[in-house]
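Record 1 of the preview.
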Amino acid sequence: MTTIKALAAPALAVVLAVTAAPGGAVAAAAPAPLVTTGPVFNDPTDPAKQDAIFGQLSRLIDGAVPGSTVMTSQWAMNSDWLAGRLSAAHLRGVNVQVLLDHTSVDTAAGAQSYGKLAAGLAQPSTATSWVRVCPLHEACLAKDPNPADAYYSNNHNKFWLFSSTTGSSTGTVPVDDVVVQTSANQTLWDRQSAWNDAMTVAGNAELFNDYAGYFAALSAAQRDRGLQVADYPVAYQAGPAQVSFFPRAATDPVIDVLNAVAAPVNGRPACFGNSPGYGTTDGRTVVRVAMHQISRVEVAEKLWELDDAGCYVDVVYRTLDTNGSDVLKQLTRPTRYGGITLHKLDDDAAGRTATHSKYLLVEGGYQGLPNRKIVWTGSHTYTYMALSANDEALLKYDDPAVHDAYRSNFWAQRAAADAQNAPAPTTP
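->
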C-alpha cells in the first residue's frame, strides 16, 4: 500500500532523490511516483483551490498508460474538458469505459459533453472503449422498490478506476490499481459552489478489483434489465480500505457503523476511554459528519443516542429531511451532554457555498477499541433513496493521517457554515 505523501493535494512534480554513487559521483535515484494514497479537497471559496479534484482527475486520465483501462460511473459529467481528455486517452490506446446516469444527458451541458465523448470514443471505434447511459429515471443496477412514487432511482456513483497511470502526461512511474472515490459530480457547480472530497487509493489490487466487479455489474444491468437487483449486500475488506455497495434492502451500513461506535470500550461506557490526542480533551469519542442531505430518521436517532451517551457529535449539513421535519427535530433534541452541534452550509443566497460532501469521521471508540481514527466517504447520502433505490458506493479508510486530513477539511467547512450564518452586524 502506498503511503500518503501529501494531504492537501497530490504531488505535482517529479522529485529526484540525490544519492552518493560509487567513486564519489552523485547520481539521481529513480523518480518518485506521482500517484499516492490520500485525499484531495476543493475549496469553493478560493478560486485557486476550486479545481483541485477536477485537476487531480485530469492528471490521472492524462497519465493513463496505453493498454490500461479507465472506468468511471457518474451521476453527472458535464465537462467538455474531461470528454476531451478521455477521448485523447482512447486515441493513445487506453480502454475508456464510462457509465452515466440519464441525468447526465438531460441538461444542455451534459448532452454536449456526452456527444463529444461518444464521438471521441468512436474514432476509431473499439469494443473496449464506450460510454453508456442508464435508462431514464432508473438506476443501472438498483431496482426501484417503489416505481410508482415521485422519487426516481438513479446511478448516483462518482468513482474512477485506473488500472495503470503515471499521474500526469509528464509522469514517468506507472502506478497500478488506482481508485478515486469522490463526492463530486463533474459539473461547474460542484467546483465553484460546493465543498467536495476525493479519496485516492493507489496500489491496492483488492480494492480495485472490488470496484471493477461492481462496475461490471452496473454495466451488465444497464444492458440487461433482468439483472437489476433490489439488494446488493456486499462489503469487501482490502487492507485499510473497505467498500460497501448499494442498493440495500435489509441492512443499513451507516447504522452498522454507528452501532460499532456505541460498543463499550475496554470495559468503559461507550464514547469514553480514549487517550490524550484522540477525541475530546476528556477522552470522549468525536463523531463528525459532513453531509449533503440527511433524511433517514434512523440515522438521526442513532447520532442523537451517541451524543446522549457522551460522544461529541458535530454535523455540517446542507439539507435535512425530504418531507417534514422529523430529522431536524431528532437532531436538535437536548442530550445529557448539551446536544448535537449543527452547522448549516447551504448556497441558498448569493455568494454562499454548500457542502456536497458525504463523509463520516470517527475519532475515538470503534468496535470496542479506543483511539481509532477512521473515515467513511463516497457518493452515499443519508437518504432513503441512497439506501434502497440508488447505485452508490461507501468507502471506509482506516488510517490516522487520512482521518486528520478529513478533520481539517471538516473544520474548514464548519467555519464556512458558521461565517455564513453569523448575524449581520447592526448599525450603531
